[in-house]
Amino acid sequence: MDKHELRNHAKNCRSDLDYDQIESISQSVIKRIINLSEFKTRSIFHLFYPIAEKKEIDLRTLAFRLWNTGKTVVMPKVSKEGTLTHHKVHSFEELESTRWGMKEPRKGLPEVDPALLDVIIVPMLMGDLHKNRLGYGAGFYDRFLAQAKRATTIGVVADQFLMHQELPIEAHDKSLDIIATEKRMII
Question: What is the CATH topology of the domain spanning 3-186?
Answer without folding.
Answer: Rossmann fold (3.40.50)
